[in-house]
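Bumping with the actual sequence this time:
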Amino acid sequence: MSNRPDNDDHNAEPVREADLAVIEAGSRTLRATAAVPQDDALPTRPKDPEVDKALREVEAELAGRWQETKLEPSLDRMNALMDILGDPQRSYPSIHITGTNGKTSTARMIEQLLLGFELRTGRYTSPHVQSVTERISLDGAPIDPEKFIETYRDLQPYIEMVDGSQPHRMSFFEVLTGMAYAAFADAPVDVAVVEVGMGGGWDATNVVDGSVAVVTPIALDHTDRLGSTPGEIAVEKAGIVKKDATAVLAQQPGEAAQVLLKRAVEVDATVAREGMEFGVAHREVAVGGQLLTLRGLGGEYEQIFLPLHGEHQAHNAAVALAAVEAFFGIGSTQVRPLDIDTVRGAFANVTSPGRLEIVRRGPTVVLDAAHNPAGARAAAAAVEESFGFTHLVGVVGASADKDVKGLLEALEPVCAEIVVTQNSSFRAMDVDELAGIAVEVFGDDRVQVESQLDDAIEAAITLAEEQGEFAGAGVLITGSVITVGEARLLLGRK
């Protein structure tokens, strides 16, 4: 049913870049007049054509390397690059974050808290929503395209040296990680907030020794690489907990918690556990987000407004607060709480694009990057709690390597009907295959198939509008970060 050519080449990511270029050129912006205005600082294409050309050249060179889905579990290449560069990752302290879901939102919260206390920050997260440059942030803003290009070109000779000395060339993710660490050192930053790409122990980011190691909730994802149970997955993720660090642990499945605690004992790390040393004391839904009382390592923090939806984001906030407290030594060398006004101001400034993000009104269109069953369950619960839709239409475009049936089963109770589609990535599940699974879960009469994402969004908006202006209908676009990023551009979020 798709009009896209078959492509089995796993270096096919430039296809996505080409499709996004068409979207960004405005070939079809869907009902942009209804978009919700908001400044979330996500980067767009450079306005200077020469800079844009140079950035596309760098993107193409990066895309020619192993993509994030192709891994060789080793830190040899990263260690070699860091050694040549003089270990830039050791020129600043780091807060290192792993887990299955919630890493990027937690990283953004940690960053805002550190900025509130007037520290210069570097943040490295993945994957990106719209532009590769957003993965590297300095002082809360994505790195300038010119600086991104300059950093890559400066490192290119050293990257090629490593390529020539190793059995495998450096991967896309390894090169970006090296660029981030170099950019942070060059800034220079006071602290780096670093999100693991996959796993932990052998992840490219793990050449840092984070003084604080954060583990967000562990669930089943990437089971072909990390393990088939939470306990097995935790073994790899525990690798970021280093000697004498503080391990800040979100609530975990029992077997995962045992693995993490065992690792902490082995490396003599201090442990702070959600539900024990810190947690969410109270939460209530508020207009535009939620109002929280957080119990931190240094005491209670009341009247915290978080402009994000969902109970899971409240737990992310508790983890982020404990991580920053631990970074400042609260709970170990001192017991006083952080300044409450600074904490309130920081959380009030948090954004997390593509995470239950409203991009349109009338009908309301919400984007969420959930891509596994645990993430979809959290999104479904948050949609029910915060939006009160009487008729929700889902738009789902998922990756072929995910538990798609589990994801759809999590969405089924809240979606009256769904439109299945596919994004432009080579990883996307074929729309006909996705439709077959969706019919199993939803039944034939609740599934519509649109091979192109723009058509799928239009169809979902039309289905919602058919319920009537005051019927409380909405649209949830989900299934993949890539789907969300492309939808965001189509809906005029530039």
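The tokens above came from a reply further down the thread. Residues 1-19, 21-29, 31-39 have pLDDT under 50 and may be disordered.
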